[in-house]
Design a protein that fits this description.
about 230 residues, about 10% strand, alpha/beta, 6-stranded parallel sheet, 11 helices
Length: about 230
């Protein structure tokens, strides 16, 4: 297969371990305030509001806003389920920014550095630019640009998100590859002419609760990002 000129990456779950990172951050912030709860369940509940919140924007019911704004709305929605109330604004803001402090899967940063030697690389994520920058600096992600929802003014899987990324690099979709651990993301990218690469993250949602292989046709697949890079000949 001809080497793509640009590789675009989903980030949540694909490059970073959101579940254990959010559980860790929530515990570090809330336990000293006297709260004791199932921290992984809290992370799952917060993440569970992600797609419904974005659907309000994709459908046109609400105007586009940054993911940080949606994360804050979702946080306020789930806190009562865990009997957490009375947090100060400073605590709420710090907790909401936990999404900026997610840790990468071990293979992510070294594999991106390897890819960057021959290809353009960028996130095409639903996360806003400041979120992506903070996460890149934390985890040494060597992006050439920050692309995705805030550039397109919409959220994946809307076509404009993928196509705006290709246009930003002045490349046709056929010379770009979307890389993700989620088959639905790759199916949408393929419909818009991008090549697709799947990486397995079998523990994204907990042990054995992530995709071990794609459920849709893809151009390449790896057991992790390092394996995918090797299969691309890079």
């Amino acid at each position: 297969m001809q080497t793509p000129k640009a590789l675009f990456f989903d980030v949540f779950g694909t490059l970073v371990d959101w579940r254990t990172s959010i559980a860790r951050e929530a515990e570090a912030i809330l336990r000293p305030l006297g709260h004791s709860l199932d921290w992984l369940a809290f992370a799952d509940a917060w993440r569970g509001e992600y797609q419904p919140a974005m659907e309000d924007i994709r459908s046109g019911r609400l105007a586009f806003c940054k993911l940080d704004v949606l994360h804050r709305r979702n946080l306020e929605r789930i806190l009562p389920r865990f009997n957490v109330a009375g947090l100060s604004e400073d605590v709420m803001r710090h907790l909401n920014l936990a999404w900026h402090r997610l840790d990468a899967w071990p293979d992510s940063a070294p594999s991106l550095a390897r890819l960057k030697r021959k290809c353009l690389i960028a996130p095409v994520s639903n996360g806003n630019i400041s979120l992506m920058v903070d996460r890149a600096r934390r985890n040494n992600f060597p992006w050439d640009a920050i692309l995705g929802s805030e550039i397109a003014g919409d959220f994946k899987p809307k076509p404009r998100v993928y196509l705006a990324a290709c246009a930003a690099f002045d490349l046709p979709p056929s010379e770009c590859m979307m890389v993700a651990a989620h088959s639905n993301d790759l199916a949408s990218a393929a419909k818009n002419g991008l090549r697709t690469g799947h990486i397995a993250r079998p523990n994204e949602h907990g042990p054995g609760r992530g995709e071990t292989m794609p459920t849709v046709p893809v151009d390449a697949a790896g057991v992790d990002l390092e394996d995918l890079v090797g299969k691309l000949g890079l």
